[in-house]
Amino acid sequence: MSNSDRNAASRARHKVRATTVRSRHRRRGTDRDTDDETNEVPAQRHVQVTSPTPEEREEEEVKEQPATPTSALPLPEELLSSHALRFITRRDLYTFLSKAGDAGEMFLANRGLMELVQRIRTNNNLFSKYQHSRQLVSALNRFTDIRADLPQDWEKKLNREGKVFYIDHTHCLTSFIDPRLPLPDHEFTYTTPPSSHPSQQPEQLQFGEEAPIRAHHTTVMSSSAPPPPPSTSLPPSVSVTSPQPPQEVEMTYERQVVSFFRNPDIYQRISQRYHRGVRPQLREIIEDVRANGTSALERIQTSGSVAAYELALVLSLFEEDISAINTMVQIVPQQPVREERATGGPLTASTLQRKKEAFSTKLQTFKVMMARLGFAQSSRLKFNIRRDHLLEDSYEHVMKSDVRHLQRKRLNICFKGEDGLDYGGPSREFFFLLSREVFNPYYGLFEYSANDTYTVQISSTSMFIQNNLDWFRFAGRVIGLVIVQGFLLDVFFTRTIYKALANRAPSLKDLESLEPAFYNSLVWIRENDPEPLDLTFTVEEEAFGELSTHELKEGGMDIPVTEENKEEYIHFMLRWRLDRGITTQLNMLKKGFSEVMPVSLLQAFDASELEFLTAGTLEIDIDDWKKHTEYRNGYHPTHPVILFFWQAVEMFDNEQRLRLLQFVTGTSSVPFEGFKALRGSNGPKRFTIDFFSDVNSLPRTHTCFNRIDLPPYPSYDVLYHKLLTAIEEGNTFGIE
């Protein structure tokens, strides 16, 4: 959300089966069975931790399957000569695995896989049944030599989901196992198939598949095009295409991820940036995606498993790298020429949509992880709150409650003197009202980050407020509690606060919206020689009308800023601007937050996504609102009263729409996913308009259920004024 959009909205507010492509000839026997086994997608398991994994199910299947006598189902000759079976049955297999590094170690450590391989070695006929096993395919493909040419009469293809498979034109077979497996006698000569054979083209990379050795560029050739010279390698920003208009196929975000994971140096890159490194479980995930493409990626992301969450964490660290991968795959019919690939520029609509989809996936996985950990799942934690002592009562309850109760229990808000039951509505309003108190600049803990914006930051004068550190710890707990409970705050922070809460270091870019002139000065220093400015590692500070010089580092007064040390100077200036006078307060805010919300669970989110997570969006899309509204007891989209209602909503200004939303749901924020994600007492609950017979009464609401009871007013004018009166005067809960 841009600053101008946020400011305008803030002012109003303050007022996912793989398809196998076969050759012309199909082999007899178990095609259908093996295809079903390969393309079977495990049932989604969101919270059932005890459900068996695909590997466990496969292991059980192997154990239960009786050994088939060799004489009963003889293995076809073409399968007996397959590279995969010859690799599995090689005499020195276990010696080879013990010397094969991480891939061999993972193979030997997988008990189910080892039992499967041993059964195939004992009875070769079982290879026909298990040759398409996802577990076996993934394990074997880790040993292939991707730098070698495919064997003669073999071709590599991708299906529509981006899953790699191989065609053996000699035996008319298809396989998911790469034939370039190491065999002890090296009896197979790897040669490039002659280009005159129509089905023996050089490897074609489709749907955004990366060349195995070259990162970030795609080579696509016709059968008549000669292969490029072996010594030629193109730079990362160059792709091969035709001077004629190519046929373009859009590369989706999922295809970009698959392409990214197929980089030869992927594990090194992840180890450098991901704090947990490449553990065996993560390596299995990546190998699955490398081998099986987008279908594997979607299966993992929708499984709700720990693996899905770790995948989201890794992807979040490489968003820019993934987005930089060519957004279009160019299918070229002619002799290739070089063409520069754009890697910068503004975000396109498709890029924004991919980022939105990526965030939705992260959010879904995050909610599953929270549920698995038992957050906000057990009995109720009751807060008795007086509206006229909201801040004091809230502080008393939040700070005196056991942290484990704040994490594990659902809140039950009871406003004294009101007989409403909390099925979500009072809690939503509680956080809405509390955030307007705690983070209100009037009280001095926070201040607006600039005169023309409504984002807030910690006030540099907050140190003079009595017990300010306790209040900042309380504020941190409130932010953590709103995430745990699944509600929203009525406040937007600066990016630096969101980054601090997630234990992420600020960047120079974070200054742009806070102090544009200061940001531009530091950018100028970065891009130019600063020596003519005669700068030193000092800064002048003003406090209570007096100027003082502050050294950015020890002896800074005598250290000139030069071309060699200017990055250090920029770093110190950035820290000074962001931390001056608020370091202790920020640490207490972070402490309170981390006491309730484990920071490790937020590593997948960037600053803007944390903003959506805690405050939703101020943008009201009336079409989305209408689309996700339910009608009851005779009301329907074309009922005259409903037409009056939506006419009134369209006539309201944004402030009045937000007040109407707050009147019906208890909060004036819209979840990131839109109105379809409004929550009720026990999960998602749409905005609902119900029939209420008393035309003399004002509309009444049930915030726990996001429901407004709307009388059948006789005219638009009557409905407009009744609705306006209700949203301006109604602010208590009751039971009828």
Task: Describe the protein in words.
The protein is α+β, with helices and mostly antiparallel strands and 736 residues long. The protein contains 29 helices and 19 strands. Helix 13 (280-301) crosses helix 14 (306-317), helix 21 (495-501) crosses helix 25 and helix 27 crosses helix 29 (716-729). The radius of gyration is 31 Å and the shape is globular. The chain starts with a helix and ends in a 7-residue tail after the last helix. Mean pLDDT is 73; it is low at 14-73, 186-249, 327-347 and 732-736.
Question: What are the main properties of this structure?
Answer:
736 residues; alpha+beta; Hect, E3 ligase catalytic fold; 3 domains; four-stranded mixed β-sheet; 29 helices; 19 strands; 11% strand; repeat; transferase; EC 2.3.2.26; HECT_dom; ubiquitin protein ligase activity
Strand-helix topology:
Elements lengths: L2 H12 L16 H9 L14 H11 L12 H4 L2 H6 L4 H6 L2 H9 L1 H12 L3 H5 L3 H7 L13 E5 L5 E5 L4 E3 L62 E4 L5 E4 L2 H9 L4 H8 L6 H22 L4 H12 L1 H5 L4 E4 L5 E4 L8 H24 L5 E8 L4 H11 L2 H6 E7 L9 H14 L7 E3 L7 E3 L9 H18 L9 H7 L14 H12 L10 E6 L2 E6 L14 H14 L3 H14 L10 H9 L6 H6 L1 E3 L8 H12 L2 H12 L13 E2 L2 E2 L2 E5 L8 E3 L4 E4 L5 H14 L7
Parallel strand pairs: 8-9, 14-17, 17-19
Antiparallel strand pairs: 1-2, 2-3, 4-7, 5-6, 10-11, 12-13, 15-16, 18-19
